[in-house]
Amino acid sequence: MLKARIGSWYEDIQTGAQFKVVAVDDDTQTIETQMLEGEICEYEFDNWMHMTLRAMDEPEDWRNSYELADEDARDPDTPIIPDDFSNPLDTIEPDIMQGTDDDFG
Questions:
Q1: CATH of 1-58 among 2.60.120.650, 2.30.30.30, 2.40.50.140, 3.30.365.10
Q2: E runs forming strands in 16-96
Q3: 58 burial via Cβ count (<10 Å: 0-12, 13-18, 19+)
Q4: Nearest in space to 14 (alpha carbons), one of 41, 45, 50
Q5: Model confidence pTM above 0.85
Q6: What are the domain boundaries of the chain?
Q7: Are 18 and 11 in contact (CB under 8 A)?
Q8: Which pLDDT does position 74 carry in this prediction?
Q9: Which helix (H) or strand (E) holds 103?
Q10: CA 27, 31, 32, 37: dihedral to nearest 10 degrees?
Q11: What are the backbone dihedrals phi and psi of residue 77, each rounded to the nearest 5 degrees, phi first?
Q12: Would you call 101 helix, strand, or coil by DSSP?
């Protein structure tokens, strides 16, 4: 029997189902999982103990079933700066040109 760890991926050897443990509730003695296809399932501790499971690495394409783009994985507080970014202040010309005769009125 494998202990359910939040964030870990498992495969049910009998059914081939792949899922991630998203919550463990000791009070209700349940384990909540999210299937690779996105469906949420809940198992009681007793049922979990009788399942034939193997730990697995996170599937490479698991985000596709949740319809998450790569942009969703990044920190939302990190600004997106395009490759061709130029500072817009660089294009503004000052009203007064330093070092010209106009400076002295």
A1: 2.30.30.30
A2: 18-25, 30-35, 40-44, 53-56
A3: exposed
A4: 50
A5: no
A6: 1-58
A7: yes
A8: 58
A9: none
A10: -170
A11: -85, -5
A12: helix
Task: Give the other-Cβ count within 10 Å of 97's Cβ.
Answer: 10
Model pLDDT for residues 45-76, shown as the tens digit of each residue:
999 999 999 999 988 765 555 555 555 555 66
CA 71 to chain centre: 9
Distance in angstroms (rounded) separating the CA atoms of residues 10 and 58? 9
Tokens of 93: 């010309």
Tokens found for residue 50: 């009788």
Residues across the chain? 105
Coil, strand or helix at 38: coil
pLDDT tens digits for range 25-44 = 999 999 999 988 788 999 99
Tell me which residue has tokens 């949420």. 40
